[in-house]
Fold this protein.
Amino acid sequence: MSQHLKIDIVSDVSCPWCIIGYQALDKALANLSPDVSADITWQPFELNPHMPPEGQEITEHLTQKYGISVEQADQNRMLIKQRGQALGYEFGNRGGGRIYNTFDAHRLLHWAKEEGKQTELKLALFDLYFKHNGNPSDHEQLLKVVHSVGLDLSRAKQILASNEYENDVRALQQRYLSAGISSVPAVIVNDKHLISGGQPVEVFEQALKDIAAEA
């Protein structure tokens, strides 16, 4: 008998492990199909909620935030690139990249859920940042991404020019922070099972299989 799961992914569009985790989760679901299927909702999490509009150079940011050396930051970047390649995701050159505020991207994602295009927009925002060295806080770049996935451009402009969905996004962020989510990705299945981090395909596959059997 087929089991349909509810999956919430708490993540940020500037989190490399979030796209790695999604790629692995997607492959796990494909391996388990048609016995296991899922509805996926992306939930907001800001890695750097106080980041100024101009952002910060990525290596400078990582060494300051995590107390690691430039060499360690470079090693981590290489590991991320290799994990991505193994899952069919090509990260661009992040050597000269910057970290930005992502709050407006999360507001658009909240709206995109209502329009039935949240995952399409999320994946396009990952590509904007990781493949094209884009700025997910820049409204013009956000609007191009919105248009590329077939969402209404004038509606998106209206949202970005206002504070629409601000309270909704902040409430969701607080909800997950209060629940103890302090790092992402956090994959929550059926509102009670937590799978943390960008796990390998086989880890997601076994976890989903076990949860579906329990359900």
